[in-house]
Design goal:
The protein is an alpha+beta fold. Helices cover about 20% and strands about 35% of the residues. It contains seven helices and 20 strands. A hairpin with a 2-residue loop joins strand 18 and strand 19. The chain is globular. It starts with a strand and ends in an 8-residue tail after the last strand. The mean pLDDT is about 90. GO terms for molecular function: tRNA pseudouridine(55) synthase activity. This is tRNA pseudouridine synthase B.
């Protein structure tokens, strides 16, 4: 069973919970997810099965899209609705649509983020949430992320109340914390804020319309039509450069051969997926110490004699 199952993750389950449940349902151990979603977050969670687990890291690195809701007026320990209130500041004036859109525009592009204490980022060998649960606050690494698009999803021209909430859509790079983005939006508007709700609407090439809830997965298992909802592992590599090769070269790739760097390989191409027909054979990169040759990063198919 090789391929990618585009799961619709329900609220209340961790990404690891989803992997565990699918292992049990499909009676297979080779299962992996492609990017952690917090328990309260719903949405697209591609699950790699069998040989497709080899490409999980490439899907994790691909862009994501979310629809979220930020609430201005109070902040929380976890930066989302599940945490305890840290600071309150009642909204004293209406916000115009233009003000909010200008803030969203200012956060588009490359920005710096500090991960929340309640996150899975490791510092000194421990995850930040382990420190947070013990009440230990430590220095966290700031990192660059890219916001490709950040749009307001309302038609209102004015937003007012003791608290103010509005929905947004964001397309972003790997490593972006949408909870932290919600807090940053609030800071720029002059108020404490948190993320009220969040849904991942796309992960790499998989969108909300592709995603399957557990109930539908169970129906396909019972009907014996699981192959109808499993995408080929090649779909998870669609964002990488691709190159077709001959049968002779494909045989060498399956054996993990080191090959001369092709003339067409340019400096901006870090890794290339080699295909024979519609099948991905291997992922190669230029040798780090010998620029005249390329070496395998991942061999996705092996020679039939070695099976």
């Amino acid at each position: 069973m090789d391929g990618i199952l585009p799961l619709w993750k329900p609220a209340g389950m961790t990404s690891h919970d989803c992997v565990w449940k699918i292992r049990k349902m499909l009676k297979t151990k080779k299962v992996g997810h492609t990017g952690t979603l917090d328990p309260d977050v719903t949405g697209v969670l591609p699950i790699c099965l069998g040989r497709a687990t080899k490409v999980a890291e490439y899907m994790t690195n691909d862009g994501k899209e979310y629809e979220g809701e930020v609430t201005l007026g109070f902040s929380t320990t976890t930066e989302d609705a599940s945490g305890d209130v840290v600071e309150r500041k009642p909204i004293e004036r209406p916000f115009t649509r233009k003000e909010i859109e200008e803030v969203l525009h200012s956060l588009t592009g490359e920005i710096l983020q500090t991960p929340p204490m309640y996150s899975a980022v490791k510092v000194n060998g421990k995850r930040l949430y382990e420190y947070a649960r013990k009440g230990i606050h430590i220095e966290r690494p700031t990192r660059k992320v890219t916001i490709y698009e950040l749009r307001l999803l309302h038609n209102e021209q004015s937003f007012s109340g003791e608290t103010v909430s509005f929905q947004f859509r964001v397309r972003c790079s790997k490593g972006t914390y949408i909870r932290t983005l919600a807090v940053m939006i609030g800071e720029k508007l002059g108020y404490p804020a948190h993320m009220k709700a969040l849904t991942r609407t796309a992960s790499g090439p998989f969108t909300q319309s592709d995603a399957i809830p557990f109930s539908v997965l169970a129906q396909h298992l019972e009907a014996g039509t699981l192959s109808d909802i499993i995408a080929p592992l090649e779909k998870g590599l669609s964002h990488l450069p691709q190159r077709q090769v001959s049968a002779d070269t494909a045989a060498k790739l399956r054996n993990g051969a080191v090959l001369p760097t092709p003339e067409w390989w340019t400096d901006h191409q870090k890794q290339v997926v080699f295909y024979e027909g519609k099948s991905a054979i291997a992922i190669y990169q230029v040798h780090p110490r010998k620029s005249h040759v390329i070496k395998p990063v991942k061999v996705l198919q092996i020679d039939s004699l070695k099976r």
